[in-house]
C-alpha cells in the first residue's frame, strides 16, 4: 500500500448553530477512488469545501504528502494539487469555454498578459482528452447541460491535480454519460491520482470506488475497503438503522383515466407528446438528459407556451396558460432545478411549504399562522425533513432537505396529478425510500403520478408504465413486467430501432 | 470574443451526421449511440450559425458583436441623416467638438462598466468628479506654482480615495452598492460646499496652464480626446488581457463560481470601485479645467447619463456582460444626441424626451439581442438552426 | 443714528448655495446688519433649486419665529402659500432677485426694473454689433421667472425699428449648468453660421458662453453680452469675447434688501407710493404690486472690469 | 406493500415550531434600531432647538415629506420584489401638469385628484408593460421613462407655469385637514394634521396589513426572494409586478395632486430629484435592495427619522447640501453598523 497523498486529521467545522463536521480524519491514497457517503447534511460537501479552501476548518489539520497545509483560497488548494467538481454547477454562462476552464489560473505570457492562444490550445487539448470536441471559444451559454458538465470535468483536470474530488457528479446524468464519466475516473486512477467520489447511488459506488468513508451527522462512522462491506451494511452504517434497499412497489388498483394529453408541441423542444394517465398510476418518463422531458412537462404545466395540443383532466378540457392555471386544475409539478425553480431559499420552511397553496390558509382576509404550522409539521415530519425549527431559512438546509421541503410544497396543493421531475436527485438513501414510499402511498390514494427520472432502477422500481422520450418525441412505451433495462436504454438512445 | 482567433475546425452548416467521428472507429459504430456526453446531438444545433474562421466576417465579429454592429450602423445612419439636414454637423471641426465633448463620457462610461460588470453600480461618480475637480481647482487657486502633473494627480488621487471608500465598504461590509453610492453621492457633493466653504473657483482664479491643457490639440484632436483614447486602450487591455480583468467578468457572471475559482470577490470589487473613482477624479480635472469653474453643482445628475451610456452600449445591469467597444459606442451615441440636438435647432424642451426615448429604444433592442436561444431539441428545429421563426409559424 | 431694530433675526433664503452672486448678496446683507446693529442674518438655501425644497427651508424659519424673511424665489406662485403662512404668524416677508407673486410678500426689491434690464442687454449687443447681425439668447432654465420676464422685456425692446437688421434667431436654455450652456453655445454657432451676438441674462450662461467663444476660436466673430459678474468675466472681456456686460452690484443688492426689511420690521408702511430706506443707497419708492427698484444696471467693459473684479 | 419500510422515526430530530430568540436577535431587528434612532433624533433636536417640540411646527414639518412618503410605500413594495421605479418624480411632474390643465379647464377638486391619479396610472402601466411585458430590467427602463415623462412635461409646458387652481383644491393641500382641538386636559389634544400626512398614515396601515398579513403579501416576499420559484409555485409574478408598477404610478399621481394643491403652482421641474430621496427612505427602512426582505413599519419609521433629522437641521440653519451630507452618512452608518456588530459578534465563538 502506498503512502497517503492527503490526510485530514481531527477536522471539525461549525457554522452558527450547526456542527457540520466533528473530529473527522481520513486518508487518500494515490491511484485509488475513495467514496464519501452519508445522508443529506452528513457533511460530505463540507469536507469538499474544506479541501478546496472555500471553508476553513474550525479545528484539525490537513496534510498533503506529509506537509501540513492551510488553504485560504481555492488557489492554495490547486497549488497543493487538489481540484474539485462541486455539487452546485459553478460556471460562467457569458464567458467562453476556455475561460471557464482556466478562470483563476489563466496562462499568462509577456507582461503577465493573458495568452489567449495558449489558453485555447490547452483547453482544446483538455477537452479532446475527455472526448469532447467543444470549440474552446464558444460562450458557455450555448452548450447543453451535458456539454457544460464536460467543461467542468475539463476544469478539474486542468490543474493536473493529484487529488480530484467529484461531489455528486452523476446526479444529473443518465446511464451512457455515467459510463463516459467512469472511463475518465478510471483513467485518472490509472495515472496514479487520488479520486474522491461522492454519490447517493450505491451501484455506482461499488462499480467505481475502492475505499469508502462514511459520515453521519458530521461524525465519521466507518471507513475501509469496499470489498469488505455489503450494500446493506453500508446503508446501515450511513443511516444508523436498516433500510430496505429495493424500491418497493405497492399494489395499487388503477382507476379510470385522470389526465389525457394529446399532441403536446412547441416550436423547438418537443412535439406530438400524447399519453393517457390513470388514477393511481405511476407513469415513468425516461430519456437521456436533454431528451425534452422537462420541457414537455413544463409545457403541460403552463411554464412554456405551447403551439399545439390539448389536455383533458377527468374528462374536462383544460386551458393552461400559467402554473397558476395548472395548480388550480389540480396538476402539480416538482421542478428538477431545485435551487432556481423549486426553493425560495431566503424564506423559511413554513413559508415554502404553504407557498403554492396559500388560499387554503386564508381565514377571512388574513393568513392563519396556526393553520400553516399544522400543515408544515405534518408534511415535514412525513418527509423526515431535518431542521432546527420550522421557521429556519431554507438556504440553511442541506440540499437533500431542501428537496424534501420542495416536494412537501407540492404535496400541500393536494393535486390530482403530480409531475415529479427528478424528485430524488441528490437525496440520500433513507430519504429516498421515504419519498418513494410516499409516492406509492399517494398513488394508493388515487393520485396520478408522472415520474421523470434519469435513474433507471428508480423508474423501473416505481412505475407502472414507462414512456421513453428521445429528441423531443415519445419514441416508445413499456408496460410493467414486459420491459428490460436494455430495451429501455436502447429506446432512449435510438440504438434499438436501428438494430431492429 | 475579443482577441485573435486561433485556427478551429470548420464547423458544419448541414444537418449533423448521426454518428460523430469522435469515438474510436469500429464495426460496432452503427450500433453505438452517439454519446450525448460529448454533446453531438444537442451541440450541433448551436454551432450551425458559425462561419469559417478564416472569413472576414468572423474576424469582424471578434471586435464587434452583432449588437455593437447594429449600434454602429444606427450611429452612422443617424449621423448621415443629421448631416443631410445640417452639413455643418459633418465638418471635421464639429466632429472634433463632439469627440471633445464626449471624451469625459467615454471614460466615465468605461469606468462605470467595470463596476456594473461586478453586479454593482456607482451612483457617486458625478459627485466624485465634482469634488475631485474642486480639489484640483483649489490647488490651482492657492498653489498656482504646482506643476500641472501634480494638480492632475491630485484629482486622480482624490477620486481614487473616494472610490476606495465606496469599494471598501461594499466589498468588506457587503453594503449593497446602490445604497452605498447613493449615500456617498450626497456626502461627496455636500463635502464640496464644506471644503470650499460654499465658494466657487472661477476661471480667473485657476491657473493658466491648468485651463490650457484640455484645449491643446495634436493632429486635430484635443488632449481630452487623446486621454480618452489612451484610457480606452488601457481598459481594453485590462479587461481582456489580464487575469484581474477577466476576474471582473467572473465575479459578475457568477459570484459563487468565481469564489470556487479562487477569485477574491472583495478584492475585485475594491478594484472596480477604485478604478471608477480614479477615472472620475481624472474627469473631474478635465471638466473643471475645460468649463473653467468649480462648484458644488457641476455634473449634477451626470451619473444617470453615464449609466445610460453603458446600457445603450449593451452592458448588462445584471453583471458579467459588457465590452469596451459597446460602451464606447453607447457613450458616442449619447454624445451625438446631446450635441446634435442644439445644432438641429430642435427646441430645447424636446431634448430630455428624446434622450428618454432613445434609452428605452436601446434597452428594448438590447433585450431582443440578449434573448436566450431556444433549446433546439427537435431534429427539425436543429436543422433550421437559430432561425426557427418559420417553424414556429408553421406549428402555430 | 440710532439702531432702527433691536435683536431681530432676518433670514436670507436664496436659490442655491455655492453661487458667488448670492454670496456677494449675503455679504451686503451682513454689512447692513452690522451698520444697523442688533440684527442677525441667517443665510441659507435648500439643496436643490426647487420650490418644494425652498418651502421646507422657509418652514423651518417660520418655526424658529424669525422676524423677517428675504427670499430669492425658485417659483413665484408656489411660494405664495408659505409666504402667507409666515405673514399670519407675524413674520415680514419680502423677495429680492427673483420675486414671489404679490400675494405672498409685502415688497419685492428689483435690482433694476425689468424693462430696463431687458432693454439694456439688447442695447449693449446692438452697440457691439453696430445694429447688424443675427443674435440669439442663451438663458438659464426655462422655469425661471426672472429670466423669462427679462427675455420678454428684450423682445419688447427688439420691436424698435433700429434693430431691424439685428434679428433674434433662437432662444436656448443652458439650465445654469456650465457644460450644458457650453454645448448650447457651440450648437448655436453651428446651427446659425451667421450668428454674431449672444445675450445671456445669467451669470453661468454668460461665463460658459464666453468660454465657448474663446475655446472655439470665435473671438471677433461672435460676441456675448448679458448679465455677468466682473470677477468671472474679466478674462473674457480682456480677450475680446465680450465687449460689455451689465449687472448691478450684488453686495449693494443684499445691503439694500436688508435695509428695506429693517424698515418693514420697524412697522413702516409698504403701500404703493411709500418710501423705504436703502441706507447709504438712498431711498426707493414702492410701486404697483409692492415692487420697488434699486437702481440701474451698471455696465462693465475693458475700462472698469478689473477694478470691480476685486469686489464681486 | 410488499416490503417493510420504516420511515425515519420522528423522534430522531426534534424540530421546533419557531426558533428560540435571544435578546440580541430582538435588539438587532431593524425596526428596533430605527426606533432608537428616532428617539435619539427627537431628544437631540429638543435639546438643540427650543422650537422643535411644537405641535404646529411638527405638523408643518410633515407637509414637507408626506408626499414623498406616500410614494415610498409603493417603492418599498417594488424594491421588495427586486424592482425599482426611478421615474416616480417624473410621473409626479407629468401628473401635476395634467392637473394644471384640468384646473384651467375648470375641473373641481375631486376631478383634479382623479386626473392626477389617472395620469399616474397610465405612466405606471407604461412602466409595467415595459418591465413585465418585454422583460426588461426595471432600473434601466425607469431611467429611460424618467427622462421621457419629464421630457414630455417640458415639451408641453415649455417655460410656462400652471398657476390657476380652485380654492377648495388649494385648501386641501395648504391647510390642516384636521384642526387642532383642545380637550380641556392640558396635555391631551387632537393635533393638527395635514391631509397628505393623514393619507400617508392610512395608506401605511393598509400597506402594512396587505404585506404582512395577507396571502398577497406573502406572494410578494416569495417573488422578491426567488421570482422563478414563485412563478413555478403558481404565483402570477408578472401580474403582481405589473400591479405594483401601477400602484407606484397611482401613488405618484396622488402625490402630484397633493403637491400641486400645496404649491398652488407647477412647473416642469416640480419634484425633481425626489426619486433618490424616496429610495433613501425605503432603504433606510430596511427594505433589502436584493429583494425579499423588508417591512412597512420600517419604512414608516425611516420616513419619520429622515423627516425629523431634516427638520431639526434646518431649524439650526444648516444649509440643504450639508443636511444631505448627514443623511447620506446616516444611511451608510445605519446599514453598516449592524454588519460591523455582526462581524465582531461572529468572531467571538470562533476565537
Ligand atoms: N454555509 C452554511 N451555513 C450554515 N450551515 C451550513 C452551511 N453549509 C452547510 N451547512 C450545514 O452543514 C451540514 C452539512 O452540509 P453538507 O452540505 O456538507 O451536507 P452533504 O453531506 O453534502 O449533504 P447533501 O447530500 O444533501 O449534499 C448541514 O447540516 C448543513 O445544513
Ligand atoms: N442550453 C442550456 N442552458 C442552460 N440550461 C439548460 C440548457 N439546456 C438544458 N438546460 C437545463 O438542463 C436541464 C436538463 O436538460 P433538458 O431539460 O433539456 O432535458 P430533459 O430531457 O428534461 O433532461 P432531464 O433528464 O434532466 O430531465 C434542465 O433544467 C434545463 O433547463
Ligand atoms: Mg452535498
Ligand atoms: Mg430535465
From TrEMBL, chain A:
Compartments it resides in: Cell membrane
Pfam short name (any one): ABC_tran
An annotated Gene Ontology molecular function: ATP hydrolysis activity
Domain annotation ABC transporter: ranges: 6-242, 252-496
Transmembrane segments: none
Membrane topology type: Peripheral membrane protein
Keywords for this protein: ATP-binding, Cell membrane, Membrane, Nucleotide-binding, Repeat, Sugar transport, Translocase, Transport
Superkingdom to which the source organism belongs: Bacteria
Keyword Repeat belongs to the record: yes
One of the record's GO cellular component terms: plasma membrane
CDD domains xrefs: ABC_Carb_Monos_I, ABC_Carb_Monos_II
Protein family membership: Belongs to the ABC transporter superfamily.
Record-given protein name: Sugar ABC transporter ATP-binding protein
Organism ancestry: Bacteria, Pseudomonadati, Pseudomonadota, Alphaproteobacteria, Hyphomicrobiales
Amino acid at each position: 500500500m502506498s503512502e497517503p497523498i492527503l490526510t485530514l486529521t481531527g477536522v471539525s467545522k461549525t457554522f452558527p448553530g450547526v456542527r457540520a463536521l466533528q473530529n473527522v480524519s481520513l486518508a487518500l491514497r494515490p491511484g485509488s477512488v475513495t467514496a464519501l457517503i452519508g445522508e443529506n447534511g452528513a457533511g460530505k460537501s463540507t469536507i469538499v469545501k474544506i479541501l478546496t479552501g472555500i471553508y476553513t476548518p474550525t479545528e484539525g489539520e490537513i496534510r498533503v504528502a506529509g506537509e501540513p497545509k492551510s488553504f485560504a483560497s481555492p488557489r492554495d488548494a490547486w497549488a497543493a494539487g487538489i481540484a474539485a467538481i462541486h455539487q452546485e454547477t459553478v460556471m460562467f454562462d457569458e464567458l467562453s469555454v476556455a475561460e471557464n476552464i482556466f478562470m483563476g489560473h489563466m496562462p499568462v505570457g509577456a507582461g503577465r498578459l493573458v495568452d489567449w492562444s495558449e489558453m485555447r490550445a490547452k483547453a482544446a487539448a483538455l477537452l479532446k482528452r475527455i472526448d469532447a470536441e467543444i470549440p474552446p471559444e464558444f460562450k458557455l451559454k450555448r452548450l447543453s447541460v451535458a456539454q457544460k458538465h464536460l467543461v467542468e470535468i475539463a476544469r478539474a483536470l486542468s490543474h493536473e491535480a493529484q487529488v480530484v474530488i467529484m461531489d455528486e457528479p452523476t446526479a444529473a446524468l443518465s446511464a451512457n454519460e455515467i459510463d463516459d464519466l467512469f472511463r475518465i475516473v478510471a483513467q485518472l486512477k490509472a495515472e496514479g491520482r487520488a479520486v474522491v467520489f461522492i454519490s447517493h447511488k450505491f451501484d455506482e459506488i461499488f462499480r467505481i470506488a475502492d475505499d469508502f468513508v462514511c459520515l453521519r451527522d458530521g461524525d465519521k462512522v466507518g471507513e475501509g475497503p469496499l470489498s469488505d462491506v455489503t450494500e446493506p451494511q453500508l446503508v446501515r452504517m450511513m443511516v444508523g438503522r436498516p433500510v430496505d434497499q429495493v424500491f418497493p412497489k405497492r399494489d395499487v388498483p388503477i382507476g379510470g383515466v385522470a389526465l389525457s394529453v394529446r399532441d403536446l408541441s412547441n416550436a423547438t423542444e418537443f412535439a406530438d407528446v400524447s399519453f393517457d394517465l390513470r388514477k393511481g398510476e405511476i407513469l415513468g418518463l425516461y430519456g437521456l438528459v436533454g431528451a425534452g422531458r422537462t420541457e414537455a412537462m413544463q409545457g403541460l404545466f403552463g411554464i412554456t407556451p405551447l403551439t399545439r395540443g390539448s389536455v383533458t383532466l377527468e374528462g374536462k378540457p383544460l386551458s393552461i396558460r400559467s402554473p397558476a392555471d395548472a395548480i388550480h386544475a389540480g396538476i402539480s409539478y416538482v421542478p428538477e432545478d431545485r435551487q432556481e425553480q423549486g426553493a425560495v431559499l431566503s424564506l423559511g420552511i413554513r413559508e415554502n411549504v404553504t407557498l403554492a397553496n396559500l388560499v387554503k390558509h386564508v381565514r377571512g382576509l388574513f393568513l392563519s399562522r396556526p393553520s400553516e404550522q399544522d400543515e408544515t409539521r405534518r408534511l415535514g415530519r412525513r418527509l423526515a425533513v431535518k431542521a432546527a425549527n420550522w421557521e429556519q431559512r431554507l438556504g440553511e438546509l442541506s440540499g437533500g432537505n431542501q428537496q424534501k421541503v420542495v416536494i412537501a410544497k407540492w404535496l400541500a396543493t393536494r393535486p390530482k396529478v403530480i409531475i415529479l421531475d427528478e424528485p430524488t436527485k441528490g437525496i440520500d438513501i433513507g430519504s429516498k425510500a421515504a419519498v418513494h414510499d410516499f409516492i406509492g402511498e399517494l398513488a394508493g390514494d388515487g393520485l396520478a403520478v408522472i415520474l421523470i427520472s434519469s435513474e433507471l432502477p428508480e423508474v423501473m422500481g416505481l412505475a407502472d408504465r414507462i414512456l421513453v422520450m428521445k429528441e423531443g418525441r415519445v419514441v416508445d412505451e413499456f408496460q410493467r413486467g414486459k420491459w428490460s433495462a436494455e430495451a429501455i436504454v436502447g429506446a432512449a438512445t435510438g440504438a434499438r430501432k436501428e438494430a431492429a | 470574443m475579443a482577441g485573435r482567433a486561433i485556427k478551429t475546425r470548420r464547423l458544419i452548416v448541414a444537418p449533423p451526421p448521426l454518428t460523430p467521428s469522435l469515438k474510436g472507429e469500429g464495426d460496432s459504430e452503427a450500433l453505438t449511440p452517439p454519446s450525448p456526453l460529448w454533446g453531438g446531438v444537442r451541440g450541433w444545433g448551436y454551432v450551425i450559425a458559425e462561419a469559417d474562421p478564416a472569413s472576414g466576417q468572423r474576424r469582424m465579429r471578434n471586435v464587434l458583436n452583432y449588437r455593437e454592429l447594429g449600434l454602429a450602423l444606427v450611429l452612422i445612419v443617424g449621423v448621415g441623416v443629421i448631416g443631410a439636414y445640417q452639413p455643418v454637423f459633418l465638418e471635421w471641426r464639429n466632429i472634433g467638438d463632439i469627440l471633445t465633448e464626449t471624451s469625459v463620457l467615454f471614460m466615465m462610461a468605461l469606468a462605470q462598466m467595470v463596476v456594473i460588470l461586478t453586479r454593482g453600480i456607482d451612483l457617486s461618480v458625478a459627485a466624485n468628479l465634482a469634488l475631485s475637480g474642486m480639489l484640483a481647482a483649489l490647488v490651482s487657486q492657492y498653489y498656482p506654482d504646482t506643476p500641472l502633473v501634480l494638480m492632475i494627480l491630485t484629482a486622480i488621487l482624490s477620486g481614487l480615495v473616494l472610490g476606495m471608500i465606496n469599494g471598501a465598504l461594499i466589498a468588506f461590509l457587503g453594503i449593497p452598492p446602490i445604497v452605498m453610492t447613493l449615500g456617498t453621492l450626497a456626502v461627496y457633493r455636500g463635502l464640496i460646499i464644506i471644503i470650499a466653504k460654499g465658494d466657487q473657483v472661477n476661471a480667473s482664479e485657476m491657473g493658466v496652464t491648468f485651463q490650457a491643457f484640455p484645449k491643446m490639440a495634436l493632429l486635430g484632436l484635443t488632449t481630452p480626446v487623446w486621454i480618452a483614447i489612451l484610457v480606452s486602450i488601457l481598459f481594453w487591455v485590462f479587461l481582456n488581457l489580464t487575469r484581474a480583468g477577466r476576474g471582473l467578468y467572473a465575479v459578475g457572471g457568477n459570484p459563487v463560481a468565481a469564489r470556487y475559482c479562487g477569485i477574491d470577490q472583495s478584492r475585485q470589487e475594491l478594484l472596480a470601485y477604485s478604478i471608477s473613482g480614479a477615472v472620475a477624479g481624472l474627469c473631474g480635472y478635465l471638466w473643471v479645467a475645460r468649463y473653467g469653474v468649480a462648484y458644488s453643482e457641476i455634473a449634477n445628475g451626470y451619473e444617470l447619463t453615464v449609466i445610460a451610456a453603458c446600457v445603450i452600449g449593451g452592458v448588462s445591469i445584471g453583471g458579467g456582460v459588457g465590452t469596451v467597444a459597446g460602451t464606447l459606442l453607447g457613450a458616442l451615441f449619447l454624445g451625438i444626441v446631446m450635441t446634435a440636438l442644439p445644432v438641429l435647432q430642435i427646441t430645447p424642451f424636446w431634448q430630455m424626451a428624446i434622450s428618454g426615448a432613445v434609452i428605452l429604444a436601446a434597452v428594448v433592442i438590447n433585450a431582443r439581442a440578449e434573448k436566450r436561444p431556444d433549446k433546439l431539441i427537435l431534429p427539425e428545429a436543429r436543422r433550421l438552426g437559430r432561425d426557427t421563426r418559420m417553424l414556429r409559424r408553421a406549428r402555430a | 443714528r440710532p439702531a432702527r431694530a433691536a435683536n431681530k433675526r432676518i433670514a436670507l433664503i436664496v436659490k442655491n448655495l455655492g453661487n458667488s452672486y448670492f454670496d456677494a448678496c449675503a455679504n451686503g446683507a451682513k454689512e447692513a446688519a452690522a451698520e444697523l446693529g442688533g440684527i442677525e442674518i441667517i443665510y441659507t438655501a435648500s439643496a436643490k433649486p426647487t420650490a418644494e425644497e425652498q418651502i421646507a427651508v422657509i418652514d423651518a424659519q417660520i418655526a424658529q419665529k424669525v422676524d423677517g424673511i428675504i427670499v430669492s424665489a425658485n417659483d413665484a406662485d408656489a411660494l405664495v402659500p408659505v409666504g402667507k403662512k409666515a405673514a399670519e404668524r407675524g413674520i415680514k416677508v419680502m423677495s429680492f432677485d427673483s420675486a414671489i407673486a404679490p400675494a405672498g410678500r409685502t415688497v419685492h426689491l428689483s435690482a433694476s426694473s425689468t424693462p430696463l434690464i431687458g432693454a439694456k442687454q439688447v442695447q449693449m449687443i446692438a452697440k457691439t454689433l453696430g445694429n447688424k447681425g443675427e443674435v440669439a439668447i442663451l438663458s438659464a432654465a426655462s422655469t425661471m421667472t426672472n429670466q423669462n420676464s427679462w427675455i420678454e422685456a428684450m423682445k419688447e425692446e427688439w420691436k424698435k425699428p433700429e434693430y431691424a437688421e439685428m434679428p433674434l434667431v433662437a432662444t436656448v436654455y443652458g439650465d445654469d449648468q456650465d457644460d450644458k450652456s457650453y454645448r448650447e453655445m457651440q450648437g448655436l454657432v453651428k446651427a446659425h453660421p451667421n450668428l454674431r451676438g449672444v445675450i445671456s441674462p445669467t451669470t453661468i450662461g454668460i461665463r460658459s458662453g464666453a468660454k465657448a467663444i474663446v475655446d472655439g476660436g470665435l473671438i471677433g466673430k461672435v460676441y456675448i453680452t448679458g448679465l455677468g459678474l466682473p470677477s468671472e468675466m474679466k478674462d473674457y472681456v480682456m480677450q475680446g469675447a465680450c465687449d460689455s456686460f451689465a449687472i448691478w452690484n450684488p453686495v449693494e443688492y443684499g445691503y439694500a434688501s436688508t435695509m428695506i426689511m429693517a424698515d418693514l420690521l420697524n412697522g413702516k408702511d409698504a403701500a404703493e407710493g411709500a418710501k423705504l430706506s436703502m441706507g447709504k443707497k438712498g431711498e426707493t419708492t414702492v410701486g404697483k404690486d409692492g415692487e420697488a427698484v434699486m437702481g440701474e444696471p451698471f455696465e462693465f467693459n475693458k475700462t472698469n472690469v478689473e477694478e470691480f473684479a476685486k469686489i464681486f | 406493500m410488499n416490503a417493510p419500510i420504516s420511515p425515519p422515526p420522528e423522534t430522531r430530530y426534534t424540530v421546533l415550531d419557531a426558533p428560540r430568540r435571544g435578546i440580541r436577535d430582538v435588539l438587532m431587528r431593524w425596526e428596533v434600531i430605527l426606533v432608537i434612532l428616532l428617539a435619539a433624533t427627537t431628544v437631540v433636536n429638543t435639546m438643540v432647538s427650543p422650537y422643535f417640540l411644537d405641535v404646529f411646527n411638527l405638523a408643518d414639518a410633515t407637509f414637507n415629506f408626506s408626499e414623498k412618503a406616500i410614494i415610498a410605500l409603493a417603492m418599498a413594495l417594488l424594491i421588495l420584489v427586486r424592482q425599482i421605479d426611478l421615474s416616480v418624480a417624473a410621473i409626479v411632474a407629468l401628473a401635476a401638469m395634467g392637473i394644471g390643465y384640468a384646473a384651467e379647464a375648470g375641473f373641481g377638486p375631486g376631478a383634479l385628484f382623479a386626473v392626477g391619479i389617472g395620469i399616474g396610472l397610465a405612466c405606471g402601466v407604461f412602466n409595467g408593460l415595459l418591465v413585465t411585458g418585454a422583460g426588461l430590467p426595471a432600473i434601466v427602463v425607469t431611467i429611460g421613462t424618467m427622462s421621457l415623462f419629464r421630457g414630455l412635461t417640458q415639451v408641453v409646458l415649455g417655460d410656462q407655469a400652471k398657476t390657476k387652481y380652485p380654492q377648495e383644491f388649494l385648501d386641501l393641500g395648504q391647510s390642516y385637514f384636521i384642526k387642532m382641538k383642545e380637550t380641556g386636559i392640558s396635555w391631551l389634544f387632537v393635533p393638527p394634521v395635514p391631509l397628505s400626512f393623514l393619507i400617508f398614515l392610512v395608506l401605511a396601515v393598509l400597506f402594512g396589513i396587505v404585506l404582512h398579513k395577507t396571502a398577497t403579501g406573502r406572494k410578494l416576499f416569495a417573488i422578491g426572494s426567488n421570482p422563478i420559484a414563485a412563478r413555478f409555485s403558481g404565483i402570477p409574478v408578472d401580474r403582481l409586478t405589473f400591479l405594483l408598477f401601477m400602484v407606484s404610478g397611482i401613488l405618484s399621481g396622488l402625490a402630484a395632486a397633493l403637491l400641486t394643491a400645496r404649491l398652488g403652482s407647477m412647473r416642469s421641474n416640480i419634484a425633481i430629484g425626489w426619486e433618490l430621496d424616496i429610495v433613501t427612505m425605503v432603504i433606510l427602512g430596511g427594505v433589502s435592495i436584493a429583494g425579499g426582505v423588508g417591512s412597512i413599519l420600517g419604512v414608516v419609521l425611516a420616513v419619520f427619522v429622515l423627516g425629523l433629522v431634516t427638520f431639526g437641521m434646518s431649524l439650526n440653519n444648516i444649509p440643504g447640501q450639508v443636511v444631505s451630507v448627514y443623511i447620506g452618512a446616516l444611511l451608510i452608518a445605519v446599514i453598516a453598523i449592524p454588519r460591523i456588530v455582526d462581524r465582531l459578534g461572529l468572531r467571538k465563538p470562533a476565537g
